[in-house]
Structures are given as structure tokens and as C-alpha cells.
Amino acid sequence: FLFSGIGILLSVPRLRAEEVAPRIVHHPSDVVVKPGNPARLSCRAEGSPQVSFEWLRNGQPLQVTKADGPMVQPMVLSEGSLFFLSVGEGRGGPSHEGVYACVARNAAGTAVSRNASLRIAVLQEEFSVQPSDVEVAEGEVAVLNCGPPTGRPDPNVLWKKDGVPINVTDPHFTVLSGKLIVAPAEKKNSGSYVCVAANTVGVRESRAARLSVLAKPTLLLKPENASVRLGESAQFYCQAKGDPPPTVVWSREQGPLPNGSRYLVNPDQTLQIHYVTVQDAGTYTCTAANDVGVVTASAQLLVQGIMVKKSLRWKLNKKAQKYAVWRTIIAEV
User: What residues does the Ig-like domain cover (predicted)?
Assistant: First the structure.
């Protein structure tokens, strides 16, 4: 009661505590859960008087477990979060997959959270792309393809070499969209590779693929120019290495080596030419080739008898010219 300025006693109603409508301060987030695992959709709200919570699933009120009841359905925790003891995928039991929203209420109003989805984690068995065997030369780029199985959440992809996970800090290796890129490839990178896909459900492995890093041919011995006399033997050396071992073939500028016993290629790839003739003079080429490259080297064969014959012919021609001049002079006299 209050007295007015003129002495009249007034009656004033009792003031109530201030009421504040609920406000969501923590919205739920999307979750992906393996079947049978627990899950939690978080929600918190402020308001006065005290806020109560309920949840919607796919827009409909969700039946929840009482605090003292069996945990068949999810439970609303005291701060408003929704707790699942064991997420069901719907195979012969309840399915908890869906779109959820938290509803906070009090006498002053209602607030609804943002939607959040609960999805069941999966990982298919089959790879969309299996890696296949690859052959490259040293120094080139090798690419091993892999299309991992579809899954939720998206599976992480890693690679194993000879049963051991590759060292991701090795600058030679890069995993890009599931593919393994090896650059530049080295001999030590050869081996058996497996693509591995994993998420919360489990792990899947592809079939093994072989990476073979091959070596282009190189010449250990190259042929050198040779000069021999008519009737002697000539010899040219040529030795090559590579992976796979290269095939060595001899040829000359006119084409393949002539048939016959005078030309002999030894097991060490040395070329021998016996009883050299004038026609044997020229350029001889050693060619080494394998699946990833070719290398060649050439040398000249000089036959000394050819120059002697030319010199003798020139001298005989000079003598013949002098003799013809003397005959002309005598005849005129």
C-alpha cells in the first residue's frame, strides 16, 4: 500500500519477475554415425522462466525415452541435447536417420533451432576404379589410378607399397583425388601398390598393382673409328645396359649388315669384320633398344688399300700422259 500526496491509501498489484522468451545459444550440427554407436545432437537455450525442450524429427514431434525408462528411444538431456545410446539403421529395428530440430519453450515463447541431419555411416565394398600395372622410365611421372568405394562420410584414401603405408613426407609421392602420383620415378619406387579407403565404418583395400620403373639403355662401350689394310680384320666394340636388358643391333649406312661369314657379332655384341674389302669401308652403327628407349653410336671404318690404289692410278696416269706427249713430238719431227 502507498499513501498519495493528499493522504489517500492506494493499492498496487505485486510486480512479477521479468519474462524472457527462449533463445537458442547452441544449435545442433550434422552428424554421421556408425550403426550401433552412440550419438549426440547438441542444443542449449536461454530464457526465463526456465526453458523446457522437445525435439522434432522430419518435422514431427519425436518420442523420447523417460529418464527412468529403457533406452529404446533417444533421451533429452537436462541442458537440451538429444542423446542416442545406440543409433539404429532400420534393418529389423528402429531407424534414427533423419532431420532433427530442437524446440525450446517457456511461458514467454518458443524458439526452434536450425535443422541438423543424422546420417548412418556406410562404406561400399567395390572400388569404382581398380589400380592397374604401370611401367615408366626413370625420371618420368607414374600415375596409379584408384576410384575408392562410395561412403558416408567420404573415405580417406592412402596407399601401401609392399604392404607398408607410403611415406607421405616423401616428395616423390602425391595423392590427388585418390590417384597416386610418383614423380620423378626412381628404381627404388618399383613394387606392389594397394589403394586403401577408410572411414568410420571400416577399411577397404583394392587389388595390388605393380609399378615397374625401367631404365633406358645406356652405352658402356661405344665403337671407335678404325683403319685397317685390305684383307685384315676390323673390330668394333659396343656394350649396353638397361632394364629390361636392351637388344643390340649393328647396321651400316647402306642398311643391314651383309650376309656371310665375314661379318660376326659376338655374344658381347662386338662386331668383327674379317678379310676386309674395299666395299666394307663406311659408317657402322650400334643401336641398343628396350621398352623405354633407344640409344645409338657410330664409327668409321677406313680401308687403307683404297688410298694406295688411287695413288698408284694417279701416278700411272701421269706417266701415260708424258709418254703421249713424247710420241707427239717425235711424230711431228
Answer: 22-119, 125-212, 217-302
Q: Can you give the residue range of the structural domain that contains 28?
A: 20-120
Per-residue pLDDT for the chain (333 aa), expressed as one digit of tens each?
A: 444 444 444 444 443 568 999 999 999 999 999 999 999 999 999 999 999 999 999 999 998 876 555 566 899 999 999 999 999 887 777 889 999 999 999 999 999 999 999 999 999 999 999 999 999 999 999 999 999 999 999 999 999 999 999 998 899 999 999 999 999 999 999 999 999 999 999 999 999 999 999 999 999 999 999 999 999 999 999 999 999 999 999 999 888 898 888 999 999 999 999 999 999 999 999 999 998 999 999 999 999 975 444 444 444 455 545 544 334 333 444
Q: How many independent structural domains does the chain possess?
A: 3
Q: Is the dihedral of CA 288, 271, 236, 307 positive or negative?
A: negative
Q: What share of the chain is helix, strand, coil (3-state, %, to 5)?
A: 10, 45, 45
Specify the pairing of strand 293-303 against strand 226-228. Answer: parallel
Question: CB of 28 within 8 A of CB of 67?
Answer: no
Residue 108 located in a structural domain: yes
